[in-house]
């Protein structure tokens, strides 16, 4: 096949969620899609597709090698320990995992609280914004929410004022414009406003 010829492939195989799996995982069956849809397919040359396939397989092989090496190192570390040392090591490892789970649970609860705070202020906050304001301290999180809300309110007020300023009619009452100059104004609304403010020129 000529490498310049274009072929269409469904790239669900390369999705982020699938990349996190191992080579032995059964890939999730892709949903039925319209291969002619521009949103679901992209045109690639055969050379480009083969390169992406090769890069993905290489990445997975490196990940498997890394996991294998870590397992070997872990086994070697345990082999050097006596029975009591192994028990202590496993206890510390389990405690670290439990602490991590507790921290993740606490952060998720804090995120939920922060989302409620924003909702009470009529702000629909994104997950990305929550990541910025949420901390492991309830007081710090509340202060971050209050500060961000204040900033957003100021931005909205500034935008409203700018809009009102742009939409406010120009004043021609003290401009010293003559009748002909007013009639020469091209913008209809401005011309009518100038006439209304200088009716003495049109009596």
TrEMBL record:
Pfam families: DUF4355. Residues 17-51 are annotated as: Disordered. Residues 26-51 have a biased composition (Basic and acidic residues). This is Phage capsid protein. It comes from Staphylococcus pseudintermedius.
